[in-house]
Amino acid sequence: MTTFIYTLLKGGPAFTVEAVESGFLIHRVEGHDSGFNDIARAVMNNSGSEYSAFPRSDGCGGYDCVHVILHER
């Protein structure tokens, strides 16, 4: 895994991480909408050969969760 993925797995002030069978979910922490949207966009922009990212809209033009599916090597 890349440094980017390891950094995500630690969580942060704007998001928490939940392990799931196929990878992990990144959840927004309430009150950190803007920061989480930045993280969600970075996750999507960095997806490719290592993982796929599927964001979930919060219904207000932002995101509240991103499902990251790790690709098998």
UniProtKB/TrEMBL annotation:
The name this protein goes by in its record: Uncharacterized protein
